[in-house]
Amino acid sequence: MLDALKFFLFVILLLVTIMLNQHVTSKRSAELDLELLWQIQDTKEVYVIPNQTLPSGVYTALEHSMVIGSLLEDYNDVNTSWVGETDWIYRTNLSCLAEEYRYVLLTFHGVDTFASVYLGDTHLGSTENMFVRYRYDVKELCDGDTRELRLQFRSPVVEARQRAKDRSLPIVPTCPPNMYHGQCHVNLIRKMQASFAWDWGLAAPSMGIWKPVRLEYYSSALIRDLTVATVLSKESLEHWTVFVGVYLETGLASAKLKGVLAFKIIGVPLVNESEETLAVVNKTDANGELLVEHRLTVRKDSVERWWPNGFGKQALYSLYVRWEDDAVNGVKLANPDTMISEKVIRIGFRTVELRQDPKPDGLMFYFKVNDVPIFAKGSNWIPSSVLPERSYDVNYVKFLLYAARDAHMNMLRVWGGGLYESDHFYRMADELGILIWHDLMFACSMYPTDADFLRTVKDEVRQNVRRIQHHPSVAVWATNNENEVALRQNWYKTDANYTDYYEQYVELYVRTVLPTVEQNDRWREVLLSSPSNGYQSIKERYIATNPQDPLYGDVHYYNYFLDGWNAAQYRGGRFVSEYGFQSFPAFTSWPEARIYGHAELSQLINHRQHSPLGSEPILEMIRKNLPLPTDTSNADYWPELIYLSQLSQAMIVKTETEVYRARRLEHGTMGALYWQLNDVWIAPSWSSIEYGGTFKLLHVWMRDIFAPEHLIAFVNERRKLEVVAVRDTLAPAEELWNVEMRIHRYGSFRPVDRHYESVRVTANSIGLVTQWDVYEYLAKRGLHPADHLVLLYAYRNTSNQHQSELVAENFALLDKLKNIRTEQRVRPTVVVNVVSAVCSERNNLTKVSLEVSVSVPALFVYLQLTPENSTLKQCQFSHNGFLQFQPIRTVRLTCVDPGCRNKIQARDITIRTVNDLLVR
Questions:
Q1: How, if at all, do strands 48-52 and 201-203 pair?
Q2: Cα dihedral 446/448/453/455 (nearest 10)
């Protein structure tokens, strides 16, 4: 009973300690999170916000305390601009006891961005890079007295402005375009580049402590990072060699170390037991850091390989590393645990190569994983929130990554204007089999190369590469986004001083970033830019004559002037790492849509349209292919326009992606990463998932577009219907597919004709089914292309002659939808019935089965929940924007429904079709 009481009192004391950020008396090597009871205020004490929890940002704190409205609503991106131009203070009380610990470090894992750090009256130092971890020795101040821990933040907007003064060579672009409503000179500071606004995002020049703050107590060495590379041994193909780098720290100064590192891969025996330990006798450098390298050998048959999504399992293993100082066993210590440090990470056994094999007309550019060529299917990832502290939201990141996985993506490109993502992001990528193309955080700009800038860049790259490196999902590094092509093509009027800007480019990326990455991860390829010609750019002294050459490296392709629905315009390249088209978010996603009139909503949408071309490309693409609404007085104007914009975006990205997949052999195209997966607010953008989680039509379609077994059909440049069978699957070695092509009139369920082909499709490749002159075929039968489309179905030939398995289906338009002739313009009666609805209170997930009935064929049926269901989150239809050439089809709806409060009924779902607009 007495022991139970003691334990109870201990727990109470521990809770009080945590609540007050007070004394730590554990005698183990320890970390204490200083996350509670912070106060945020401006320097004039007009706004004082108590009881804040870390991670934190000023915008978030002001919003939660209702000083400002939501940054993401109305015009608050402009209305709250004063926040980013104000200086702020973070403060809390701290009491600590150093006792017999040799090291007590106060470690800030992420400070955004410029802050002076004080503990009591002692100035510990200053921060200047939001991507860098800062450590301060506070042992002498851990005497049991309570002191104020204070961070005095300077406005990043003002700081950037000051740094721009008196420069003989301006760092361009100096400001974003006016329609961004952004801030200037972000390229002079090491902060998320998109935080001063981008063409898809608002300006939110945040300040705050966006990652944990921890007190670290230890007496020997701390294991900070582990780097890992798994290599198939050249000496014996039966073994994996695991190269482990252990980064030890001894405070902030050099110290002698003598001890033992122990290594264990949980559940996996090592070939040589002697590899389980390594004696270390060495000295840390002047910064208190020491790299210890070690090799482990594992039998190949004792582990499973890690594979990208769609190619196999994502086998992961726990690597445990323990440091134990010799003093633990050499003398009797009262508290030996202070001399011990441990770390566990998860690793995967796989090989990744970026191949740039010679071809007669250039170089290939593709990834091989475990010796298998991978067609990279995926998207580009921007931060999940414009506010850094929110971008680490575990549940939302998980939702987005699952959405990518479920759309059969096997690669995401972490774009260089955002963030080095959270540990959770990379762990999830490992688990889901999503390869990561990782830019370093430099984008669309020239950058300075003064000594202080290069110094902090080295720290940034070193720390983040070491932290991220061990994840099997990371496939390649690129030092920047679009800076090579920007310099070569004079995006920012650099030609007048080209030599100077070229020297800065080489100094930053070739002499600083590249070697720093390679020093900390010598096993992965490092690209100098994206897009780039890869090896060819290096041959051309780092700036290729044409960085967008489709015969080398990767390309970014955007064209807003040609008809994006026309497959003949797309040539592709070896690897297309960016391409896409804009659309508007769903009408119901705009909170303002319920209270704004048409003119007000139009003004807001135009305010948030940051593309220099405005919304004209969206309208022009609809105008080329669809009936464009013109009556702005109609209450349905914006709902209809939004629907058509999403349909047009989906058709453009579908067409482009399918051309790239079909050109795998002809053009050597081995990657298609569309721009972009996610958003940071409700605004016109290129995303397939709106901010908050609503799928646009594009993302629903991507499940079929990226399907591992797919049937592609489009009218090619020779005006023939080109049909291609695609298999990303590895077994069996060959399959026979039977392909049926049905020619339909738009107004009839029954096909007017059928055409059949067969094709043998080898594993992990494509097969040409046919190049069919469908227009000549129609002409001979007196059929007009504008009245018809082709529906295609692929069936797997099985041993059972009486049973065939549907593998894939698709469609091909033979003319523009706006050209459908009058007699085929029919308006269907569309009825939605709720067949079943079940909500699980365990996971707050509502699943609804819907039956969609049509009286005549319906074109691109668009289902949407009404605004009254606003408490439902992240709603997804299994199919949407679909062609319905059968009387009835089933669609599933899944939503997050906190508390299971909603009872979805048929009247909660609105329906739109292209037919409605054609018959108007």
A1: unpaired
A2: 90
Output the pTM of the full model: 0.95
Active-site option among 460, 578, 656, 690:
578
Q: What would the DSSP string read from start to end of 741-773? A: EEEEETT-SSEEEEEEEEEEEETTEEEEEEEE-
Active site residue 525: no
Compute the distance between CA of residue 588 and CA of residue 172 in angstroms, rounded to an integer: 39
Within the chain, how many helices (H) and strands (E) appear? 19, 48
Please list the residues that pair with 359 across neighbouring strands: 362
Give ∠ CA 146-150-154 in degrees, rounded to 5. 175
Are the beta carbons of 895 and 873 closer than 8 angstroms? yes
Written as one letter, the residue type at 818 is K
The pLDDT, as a whole number, for residue 873 is 83
CA dist 644 and 582 (Å) reads 12
Distance between CA atoms of 463 and 467, rounded to whole angstroms? 6
The mean of the pLDDT values for the chain is: 94
In angstroms, the CA 461 to CA 478 distance is 12
Question: Do 577 and 366 touch, CB atoms closer than 8 A?
Answer: no
The pLDDT of 688-707, averaged and rounded, is 97
Strand order in the sheet with 103-108: 30-33, 213-218, 103-108, 134-137
Could you tell me the two tokens for 111?
């400070």
CA gap 515, 521 in Å, rounded? 10
The residues pairing with 289 across neighbouring beta strands, listed in sequence order, are 249
Phi and psi of 115, rounded to 5°? Answer: -145, 145
CA atoms within 13 A on the CB side of 356: 16
SS3 of 305-343: the string is: EECCCCCCCECCEEEEEEEEECHHHHCCCCCHHHHEEEE
- In the chain, the percentage of residues whose pLDDT exceeds 90 is 90
Question: What mean pLDDT is predicted for residues 404-414?
Answer: 98
Structure tokens belonging to residue 705 = 């577009």
pLDDT in tens, 628-679: 999 998 999 999 999 999 999 999 999 999 999 999 999 999 999 999 999 9
Of residues 63, 128, 159, 482, which has the active-site annotation? 482
Q: Can you spell out the DSSP letters for 85-154?
A: TS-EEEEEEEEEE-TT-SEEEEEES-EESEEEEEETTEEEEEE-BTTS-EEEE-GGG-EEEEEEEEEEEE
Nearest Cα neighbor of 493 from 169, 180, 196 is: 169
Q: What is the mean pLDDT of residues 775-790?
A: 97
Give me the phi and psi of 568, to 5 degrees please: -65, -20
Residue 709 catalytic? no
Q: Are 337 and 315 in contact (CB under 8 A)?
A: no
